[in-house]
Amino acid sequence: MLYILQTALELGFVYSLVALALFLSYRILDIADLTTDGCFVLGMAVSVSAAAAGHPFAGILLGVIAGGCAGFITAFLQTKMGVPSILAGIITNTGLYTVNLIAMGWSSNISLLKQETIYTLFKKTGIGGDWYELVLSAAFALTCMVLMRWFLSTRLGLSIRATGDNMDMVSASSINPTYTITVGLIIANCMTGLSGALAGQLQKTADINGGTGIVVIGLACLIIGETVLQGRKSITRNIAACLAGNIIYRFIYALILRTRVLPIECLKLMTAVIVALAIAAPTLRQNAAYRMKARRES
How much is the pTM? Predict the structure, then answer.
């Protein structure tokens, strides 16, 4: 059970950055950014390729920059070319498949079994003992969450929040929505690229299909966290929900893998069920509350 908990925490911290990115794009900017799948693989591909060349730290930085570039392309298509937000994400995501193959040297996967990563280098410091991967992953994730909370309270961050609430009002207030949308999507995809970069070096591999469905899972984890952390809505609570939802999801996933409750072949179906229930949870809860209220009144 301790191993399951450790695995869930490690992956929960790493993948919480995807939920954090979706929180910014979907919850704050109200944009369904479908760049996430390809952007995650892009960060992973760039990071692992750089680590394979002997530059693991540069790989993390390059993964973040690559993710930001993907976000800029999506924002450019949306704000300058007039492409609807969903289609802009799909177009960028489609093009990233080839870009990811190029980043991986036209190979569908890369292995780091004999190369150093930031995790193996951190292990040599002796910090964290057997939990060194968790310590490093948590340091990255918590730092990003603190910075995100600070950023959203700055003038630019408040402008981005206002853009998501009412774009017409923002335009009338002499704030350029093109600029705020572009900055928001760049930052969101930087977080996704960082998540992919960390995941690649943590798992010591990059796969061209490693990001399939990550946008749906990330959104589901965000909703799971929001459902668990009920109460007065706030930015801090929603950011914490990104982490809480991912840890819960990864714990359930690791538990099923470890205990073999379901065959390996059924994991995709199980993932679909968990995601569907997580997304439907708010509606189910509202319907249940409505029925209970109707019974009391009758």
Answer: 0.91
